[in-house]
Amino acid sequence: MENAPAWLVNSFIYLSAAVIAVPLSKALGLGAIIGYLAAGMAIGPWGLALVANVEDILHFAEFGVVLMLFLVGLELDPRRLWSMRRPIFAWGGAQVLGCAAVLAALAMLSGVPWRIALVAALGLALSSTAIALQVMGERNLMPTSSGRSVFAILLFQDVAAIPILALLPLLATGVVGDVGATPVNHWLEAARIVAVIAAIVLGGRLLLRPLLRWIARSRTPEIFTAASLLLVVGIAGLMHQVGLSMALGAFLAGVLLAESEYRRALETDIEPFKGLLLGLFFIAVGMSIDFAVLIASPLQMAAIVVGFLLLKAAVIYTLAWQMGVSFQDRPVFTLLLAQGGEFAFVVFQAAVGARVFPPATGSLLIGAVAVSMLVSPLLLVVVDKWLLPRYASRRKVALEEISEAQDAPILIAGFGRYGQIVTRVMLAEGIACTILDHDAEMVEAARSFGYRVFYGDAGRLDLLRTAGAASARVLVLAVDDVDQSLKIVDLVRENFPNLEIVARARDVTHWHRLRDHQVTRVQRELFESSLCSARGVLELLGLTAADALLTTTRFRAHNLELFERMHPHHEDRARMIAVVKEGRQQLEEQMAQERLERAARGQHDEPAARH
User: Fold this and answer.
1) Helix (H) or strand (E) segment spanning residue 546
2) Spatial separation of the C-alpha atoms in residues 431 and 426, rounded to whole Å
3) What is the C-alpha separation between 422 and 427, in angstroms, rounded?
4) Which of 308, 413, 458, 606 has the maximum number of C-beta atoms within 10 A of its C-beta?
């Protein structure tokens, strides 16, 4: 590819690195972010040196963060944003100022000049919005209270980056009057910033919706996609022109369009670009790690990274405790905010340009931030696999197992969503039930709602005897774990042969395994609800309620019969597929015949209705 244009070669390199590294990283359980970072290190100046213009790529890839914040803004209407004002300014301010104060104090105690210590502390106090939101998206944490708290703090950091950058020229000399700017210039700059924000707010309210409506009327999907990108690019460029955060401007635009009828269309159009550019951003961060600084000062670099991660973690963990973040969520909450962030790159590069500290210090701090962004996803893996299980075991509620003999006719093993519904029906009919569940938190929750649920594992013979399995008439088997359910079946068959079993199957495979264990009353957990939904769809398409009910009833009977025919062959995949195809063809022919009869009935009924 020697004669190929640079953009084509670079695109091939980036996509190849991502396609190889990310699936491999996810297969190893390390997550997508580590895959992108590793891909960047592999193709960067200190790897295979396939890419040299790291700074340009990093600036371009930052647009992925801008698009991400725009999409986050689309999920928050102004009322919800206003309701978050306290966590944004109170907890966000506490995090930034608390971390900066602790880091600056330690740096000055170590002999670092106060200007360098202050700017370094303010930059290191910021966290990676890209990593935090990506991780929360993968874990579905955004709807949770801890996820909203993390987002509020990140939003404040985006706002805080503005005064931090504005502070740099003042710290260059330490004397306000020496920076060459008059009070009039300061006021003009402030007025320009206010005017730009006001223009975005008013424009979003008055102009954007009519403009998007006009573009949508053209019925040209690619132009609407272009308009969506133009909107984000234009607002980001406007914010950058006045020295404000591009990501903050995009977020503000997203909030203004959160109640728009075009919100979903905007999300759909921008989401693919956001994912690609965000991946490119992480690749660029991996490429930007300066291994020369690491090699030259490995101990100093390690001390900075470990030191600021530990200090930030201590402050953030204390803050999480004060905020009421649950014990279980605090480790992840702490790690998401402890690492350095992409805005620190901007702060430190601007600090070098303003001569607040020398280039060598800037390179060292930028390298420390990049290393922390690489280490944090790895630490999250450690937390998931080692720390959180220990937290869970510490938080388990100590409950005594069932000890008093029970004599209810119904024994229910498992009090999840399936077991709860069966229990409520039985209790409504005045039928007593003995309920067992081995999840202590579930037992506590059920008892708080007034249900008499006993703590115990239905897979233990002694507990089944105490629960009254010898005298009970029916066992409702509603446990989640497939192997555990089969173990209970074998235990009951061997020791309580008169106890009838009604079992819940999670899927087709579970159904066949239960039938192999001679359980005849098996219900697939989603089958009946799916039939109800199908009946509703048929009614919406014009069928009468009676015809829709007849169709789904016929399908139900056919499906149950088909499963009985499939069961003898469920271990012979080829034969089972043949049975399924044959059964489907029979059903389609039967349904087609019934449609013809229904149409003929309708034609006969029509003349009669006229008379």
Assistant:
1) helix 545-566
2) 5
3) 9
4) 413
DSSP code at position 401? B
* Alpha-helical regions (H) of 126-220: 129-139, 145-173, 183-203, 209-216
Residue 323 contacts residue 84 (beta carbons within 8 Å): no
More confident residue, 165 or 370: 370
Per the listing, tokens 């009614």 go with 539
> How far apart are the C-alpha atoms of 87 and 157, rounded to whole Å?
12
**Going along 478-520, which residue ranges are E strands?**
500-505
Q: What is the pLDDT of residue 611?
A: 44
For residues 346 and 348, give the distance between their C-alpha atoms in angstroms, rounded to a whole number: 6
DSSP structure string for 552-608:
HHHHHHHHHHHHHHHGGGTT-HHHHHHHHHHHHHHHHHHHHHHHHHHHHHHHHHHHH
Mean pLDDT computed over 298-308: 88
- What's the token pair of residue 554? 């016929």
pTM of structure: 0.56
Which structure tokens are listed for 134?
Answer: 């990506």
- Between 346 and 495, the more confident residue is 495
Contact by Cβ (8 Å): 65, 345 = no
The one-letter amino acid at 243: G
Residues listed for the chain: 611
C-alpha span between 583 and 495 (Å, rounded): 38
Task: Note the pLDDT tens digit of each residue in 547-565.
Answer: 888 888 888 888 888 888 8
State residue 210's pLDDT score. 79
pLDDT band at 178 (very low <50, low <70, confident <90, very high): very low
| pLDDT single digits (tens) 435-464 | 998 877 788 788 878 788 888 888 888 888
Distance CA 437, CA 36 (A): 43
**Closest by CA position to 325, among listed 444, 148, 157:** 148
Nearest to 492 by CA among 516, 523, 467, 470: 470
- pLDDT for residue 577 is more than 90: no
**Please, how many CA atoms are within 13 Å of residue 132, restricted to the half-sphere of its CB?**
29
Cβ–Cβ < 8 Å for 35, 25: yes
Q: Is the CB of residue 436 less than 8 Å from the CB of residue 456?
A: yes
Alpha helices in 204-327 (DSSP H): 209-216, 221-241, 246-256, 263-288, 291-296, 298-323
Give the model's pLDDT for residue 475. Answer: 93
Termini Cα distance of the chain: 82
pLDDT band for position 350 (cuts 50, 70, 90)? confident
Between residues 203 and 360, the one the model is more confident about: 360
